[in-house]
Design goal:
Elements (H helix, E strand, L loop, with lengths): L4 E4 L2 H12 L4 E3 L6 E5 L3 H11 L8 E3 L3 H5 L6 H10 L4 E6 L16 E5 L4 H10 L3 E2 L14 H8 L5 E4 L10 E5 L3 E5 L5 H8 L4 E2 L21 E3 L9 E5 L7 E2 L6 H17 L4 E4 L8 H12 L3
Parallel strand pairs: 1-8, 2-8, 4-6, 5-9, 10-11, 12-15, 13-14, 13-15
Antiparallel strand pairs: 2-3, 3-7, 4-7, 5-6, 9-10
The chain binds adenosine monophosphate (AMP) and magnesium ion.
């Protein structure tokens, strides 16, 4: 494949990206959560190309992105709860898992042949413009090699996928910095993956707690692998200081090499998480030690990603 094009997020850049997608090519684009690697979700070729470029296992289904809830209804069996949650949080960092419609017309590779589809309407204006220009549902997992740290800047995307994808749309740094929160809307609304929208906000909109996924439930949340988001260096959690050879990633007021949020703000920490991991890893330390992060609000998702980054490989 020729060199990956870096496109600016203006009208010509978006038109070029849409044309590449229309030809079955792959374009990384900014969303408020992380950069996504987009391909036409109706095209077997494009979707197979996404799995290929990332080295992603085929049993790990993709999230499909649409410009609004009306577009989502075209692919899934909509429900009252879907309507309530989409009404409260779309566009935004919430993915809903709903039964596929019989006439969905998507590539079966997108769902790893599950009868359900994960679907989201992103809030980033460049993502919205691209979805409208391409006039296609876009399958878009994070734009990084499978298992590695997620990308929150175009540089992160190019570092991992340059030469493997047609283009990157440059929308600057992602504001949320964590992947979407995934909620399964089966019998009871279930938190399948913590993410950029705090579970507490969803529970407030529902008026009741979300069910939590059982640790051994591989069917409803395939691809939630133990080891993921992994830097090259070993990661050690709940550290108060660096051991010899380690770099320390801090949280709150403390001495460290990089700080997720000196003031202890979880929103700021989420936005910095992947960028700081990329930056520390680039210094090739023996290990990265990470200070404790509280388990509330976005801390649930931050700790989820850190636990996977630290998991045995
Ligand atoms: P990523 O695109 O890397 O953020 O990962 C998407 C995640 O969404 C997958 O790893 C799955 O855990 C989840 N997912 C996608 N489709 C489904 C589905 N039909 N049912 C349950 N979980 C899903
Ligand atoms: Mg990912």
């Amino acid at each position: 494949m020729p060199e990956t094009e870096l496109l600016s997020a203006d009208a010509p850049g978006i038109a070029r990206a849409a044309a590449i997608l229309g030809d079955g090519g792959l374009v990384a684009f900014p969303t408020e959560t992380v950069y996504g690697l987009g391909g036409d979700a109706r095209s077997d070729l494009a979707v197979a190309g996404i799995f290929d470029a990332k080295g992603r296992p085929r049993f790990n289904p993709l999230i499909v992105h649409v410009p609004d809830a009306d577009a989502a209804r075209r692919y899934v069996a909509w429900s009252e709860t879907a309507d309530r949650l989409a009404g409260a949080f779309w566009p935004g960092a919430l993915t809903l898992v709903l039964p596929l419609r019989a006439d969905h017309g998507l590539s079966p590779l997108v769902t790893a042949e599950l009868p359900t589809l994960a679907i989201r309407c992103p809030a980033h204006p460049v993502a919205t413009a691209l979805l409208r220009a391409a006039d296609a549902p876009l399958a878009a997992p994070s734009a990084n090699p499978s298992g590695r740290i997620s990308p929150t800047t175009p540089d992160h995307v190019l570092a991992g996928l340059s030469g493997r994808i047609a283009a990157v749309l440059d929308g600057g740094a992602c504001t949320v910095g964590l992947e979407s929160t995934i909620v399964g809307l089966g019998h009871t609304p279930t938190l399948l993956r913590p993410g950029g929208l705090p579970a507490e906000a969803i529970e407030a909109a529902l008026g009741h707690p979300l069910a939590r996924r059982a640790a051994n439930d591989t069917l409803t949340a395939p691809g939630q692998m133990a080891s993921h988001y992994a830097p090259g260096a070993r990661v050690r959690l709940n550290a108060t200081e660096a051991r010899p050879g380690e770099l320390l990633l801090g949280f709150g007021a403390m001495e460290c090499d990089l700080n997720l949020s000196p003031s202890g703000d979880l929103v700021e920490a989420a936005a910095n998480l992947f960028g700081h991991l990329h930056a520390l890893d680039a210094r090739a330390p023996a290990g990265i030690a990470v200070a404790p992060v509280p388990m509330k609000g976005l801390g649930l998702a931050i700790n989820d990603r850190l636990a996977r980054a630290a998991a045995p490989r």
